[in-house]
Every structure is written in structure tokens, then in C-alpha cells.
């Protein structure tokens, strides 16, 4: 089994990031959650296997991975670091030809996971700014 992991810190509360994370289509144009059929045109469609709100962990597989892998299982976990910062880890385990793992590190690790983490962080910052602005205007 091969494994690819990407991690990042996000300057937003873990609950906010977890809420965003549960709907890839809100913040990532290349990913879509599968539930009986693709919900949107996406490069990568995933099928959620489990979702744990207590541990803020989402586990999924790709019914038709666009990479030369089999028996894949990926998970994303959000952990609170402080009241205003969280740690997000995106990982995948799969079987593949050992000779192409370096390519998968780039294609899956960087082009999907790292890009997704960057977009998730941006979406969280935008949502947090909107929430702060809404609270400020409500109190004015």
C-alpha cells in the first residue's frame, strides 16, 4: 500500500472549516461528492464512506479514479489547534505500480490535495470575513 499525505494550518475555527469541507463543490471546482450519480461536472468524483462529526473526519473512495491506482481510501481530518486556527490533514492509501509513486506524489498529492487545502483555506478565510462583517453590521 502506498500513502500520500498533505497537511496545512488554516487560520479559521475548526467548526467552520469542517462545515465547508463537507461539500467539496462549495470550494473546489475539481471535486464533487457522489451520491447516486455525479452532482456536478467534476474531474474527480468521490463516494463518501464515512463522516464523523465528533472527530471531524471524512473518508471517501473514488469510484473511477483518474489516476492509475486501485483500492483507494482517502480521508480528510480537521483538528482544532486553537479557537481561531485548525490543522487539516488530507491523506490517501492505495495500490499502484511502485515505479509511478513519484508521479502520484505530484498529481494526487500536489495537484489535488495541496490545491484542495489551499482552496479550503481561502474559502474559510472568506467565510470568516463575511461572518465578521455580518456581525458588525448587525450590531451597528
UniProtKB/TrEMBL annotation:
A Pfam family that the UniProt record links to this protein: Polyketide_cyc2
Coiled coil segments of this chain: none
Matches recorded under SUPFAM superfamilies: Bet v1-like
Name of the protein this chain belongs to: Polyketide cyclase
Organism annotation: Aeromicrobium erythreum
